[in-house]
Design brief:
Elements lengths: L1 E5 L6 H12 L3 E3 H11 L2 H11 L6 H12 L8 E4 L5 H13 L6 E6 L2 H9 L1 E4 L6 E3 L18 E2 L6 H23 L4 E5 L4 H15 L1
Helix pairs in contact: 1-8, 2-3, 2-4, 3-4, 4-5, 6-7
């Protein structure tokens, strides 16, 4: 299957993408991973992306599309792929369609993870990270530390990242509504959108997604 995964920040896209890709035996193609890989390998696209990022500018669509096209052309993606974080806007969605068409391919489904806005804010703004080790992550509601502000694992101070503040999260949601939500309507017009609730335990959401994709496929 060729799938695009969409949803607001805090919907659990990365987690679901990993589970779904494993269950469907297709590669999980994340734009974040593509950027990191191209930059660390010093590819032409990676150098171009880095120059924009270092200047604090957005990376142009053609660079992102170029990275995605190269990755989708690898042997492990012949039987399908799951795109996470791409396309991010209408222009990228149209470019993806054109790219797939030129290769004689089409998308099978666009999986839309639905989460109420207040829940998104609660999920992200409640995160607390250990200053000693950023892999130690807690949540004031869902996974609180035994002692407030103290990491259970190493005793380090817990803090809230600047981009996890409620104000920043709401700004990120505004960007999502303005730029990414229009692609859902675009794909809905093609009959590709499958919307599921992303509330509940991770395995429950994955099961919901697999069932919905099975019906779509």
């Amino acid at each position: 299957m060729r799938i695009v995964l969409v949803g607001p920040p805090g919907a659990g896209k990365g987690t679901q993408a990993a589970y779904l890709a494993e269950n469907l035996s297709i590669p999980h193609i994340s734009t974040g991973d593509l950027f990191r890989a191209n930059i660390s390998q010093g590819t032409e696209l990676g150098r171009r992306a880095k120059s924009y990022m270092d200047a604090g500018d957005l990376v142009p669509d053609e660079v992102t599309i170029g990275m995605a096209k190269e990755r989708m052309g690898r042997p492990d993606a012949v039987g399908g792929f799951l795109l996470d974080g791409f396309p991010r806007n209408l222009s990228q969605a149209e470019s993806l369609d054109a790219m797939l068409k030129s290769e004689g391919m089409t998308l099978d489904a666009v999986l839309d993870l639905e989460v109420p806005e207040d829940e998104v804010v609660k999920r992200i703004a409640g995160r607390r990270i250990c200053r000693n080790d950023s892999s130690h992550v807690f949540h004031v509601t869902y996974h609180p530390p035994k002692a407030e502000g103290v990491c259970d694992t190493c005793g380090g101070d817990l803090y809230q990242r600047d981009d996890d503040s409620e104000e920043t999260v709401r700004k990120r949601l505004e960007v999502y509504h303005a730029q990414t939500e229009p692609i859902i309507d675009y794909y809905r017009g093609q009959g590709l959108v499958v919307t599921i609730s992303a509330l509940g335990p991770v395995t429950e959401v994955t099961g919901r997604a697999m069932e919905a994709l099975g019906k779509q496929g």
